[in-house]
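Materials and Methods. Structural model of Cellulose synthase-like protein G3. The 663-residue sequence of Cellulose synthase-like protein G3 from Hevea brasiliensis was retrieved and submitted for structure prediction as follows.
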Amino acid sequence: MWSTAQAARLYPIQRKEFLENLDKVIKRSDYPALDVFICTADPTKEPPMSVVNTALSVMAYDYPTEKLSVYVSDDGGSELTLFAFMEAAKFAAHWLPFCRENNIVQRSPEAYFESNCSSSSQTFKIKTMYEIMKMKVKHVVERGKISDDHVTSDEERKAFNQWTHKCTSQNHPTVIQILLANNKNMDVSRNFMPNLIYVSREKSKTSHHRFKAGALNVLLRVSAVMTNAPIILTVDCDMYSNDPQTPLRVLCYYWDPEIRSKYSYIQFPQHFQGINKSDIYACQLKRMYQIQPMGLDGLGGPDNAGTNCFFSRRAFFGGPSSFVSPEIPELSPLHVIDKSIQSPEVLALAYRVAGCNYENKTSWGYKIGFRYGSLVEDYFTGYQLHCEGWMSMFCNPDRPSFLGHAPISLVDMLNQQKRWVVGVYEVAFSKFSPMTYGIKRLGLLMTLLYSQYAFWPIWSIPITTYAFLPQLALINQVCVFPKVSEPWFLLYIFLFLGAYWQDFFDFVSANGTFPMWWNDQRIWTIRGLTCFCFGSLEFLLKSLGISTHGFSLTNKVVDDEQSKRYDQEIFDFGVPSPMFVPLTTAALINLVSFTLGLPQVFKGNNWEGLLIQMFIAGFGIVNCWPIYEAMVLRKDNGKLPAKITLTAAFLTWALYMVASFIF
Ligand SMILES: O=c1ccn([C@@H]2O[C@H](COP(=O)(O)OP(=O)(O)O[C@H]3O[C@H](CO)[C@@H](O)[C@H](O)[C@H]3O)[C@@H](O)[C@H]2O)c(=O)[nH]1
Ligand SMILES: [Mn+2]
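The predicted structure was written out as tokens:
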């Protein structure tokens, strides 16, 4: 595991773009078109207003509006989301010129109004407008239906009539709604606005919808029919643009034909907003999102992170020198659009390609488009593109190009990463495993790095071993490590200090602080005992055909009490998740073994032999501190449920008995 990570240290790259030179090379009128894909899947878990903010922030890009189209995929198939977007389209007519005329850099309205924005009367007016929209959308979402007085035109009525009482999120026809067209709709300053298109693909119980990858493939096809831009940006609904010049940065690379013919995507990192000071859940994932991609960039390119990524459309249709043509010519990246997006033929074809049976007997998801077969469709797609011979790039400007929200409760974070575990195993143990398939196509170094992710969850084996074995042995006075006086002792000290120092150094060089790093290593041990174990088990059960699993959305709604605890840096256990059981058991075993070991060591009973074990148990205790607090000291709703504590106490006793029997 350690050696796979070393490849990322060999050729790290840090890039810089010189936007001021762009004008010397390209005229604004020659900019290539850009299609933006935004995914959302459930109006209750992903508040529509947050999706609206994502969309508004990219619609306000510093980019010619006639070249810009924003497609929103609503996998929840909800008229509430459509309603929110109808409101957003109206608000955009004010927001876009406001940003342009006042040179606003923060173009997500929510983030802008939260920051110390100017207090001019114009700002006040637009803020009021935003608040009214927000209230209206919130009200509609809370009630769960759209009352007649919210529908203002026949066109809107017609759109909502597509929902019948039979529609559910898993079973409904396609709805495609052009909310803004860049040759028709003008803002209040009489400039055209970008295209804004709502897409809810057809879903039926009888055909697999392939989660996010399926949604993105529908957008790939619908956008091919409507605008067919050569550049595609994918953004999740929990992110927003934090820099309106981001597409210009992309052009700095993309405009070079040499680069265009070799590179499939340019990945921007995920930076998060609202993380507490020492990032108690290590949600920034600094290593995965910021440190490693720089290293990968020097070897062949970063893996894909699902969001904040600019793709070349061509990359979805075979390798750089082996074009795979789609089943109908209208979907080809080479196809030239000669009709307006509102024309009936275009719409009819768009409806057809969004149908749930359209992909049957085609190459979509296998040779074309985003790839199916893994819950981490982003990792898998990026990997497949690299295997086909594409390269990719990592671009990390000083001002974060995108900002997003990370889960702020422990269980949300663990559930999210449990899904990732299942996803990476789906790749690791498939015919596409980096060890067998990747190695022939990627070379050794890239294979090592892809394997590092594919086999990421096997960390649970050493972590679980270290959490229990030395401690149980300590309780029974059995030494499992060399004595202080033996030369091997030094090896352990060297490995421990070396690994921790290297880890710390990496972290701090990526602008991390000591408390952040401390939490990062704590969460690493927690993962090993929770989501890594449970994800592996889930994957095993699935492989044996005993259970199935889906894409469990990461929760994006938080209650006030929870976010207050988060701001105070207090761990949130709250729900009785089975994942907490091994964690709490480990916490108790470490405590028990340390307490029982201490008097023995003081008495001088074999202290030389037990020192490392005492150290590990002590280290475990320090790391488990929030768990003890949550177990006994706290009274709030985030404390550890009594059920978990009791189960863990029983297991601790059982382990103790078994161990004394064995040792
Ligand atoms: O059936 C689905 C499921 C999810 N989504 C969308 O996928 C995105 C990511 O979902 P989220 O619940 O936020 O998952 P995260 O774990 O936070 O996302 C990370 O991991 C995913 C892979 O598991 C990647 O797709 C994401 O880009 C990456 O940020 C969201 O916009 C969802 O709306 C869909 O469109 N359809
Ligand atoms: Mn997310």
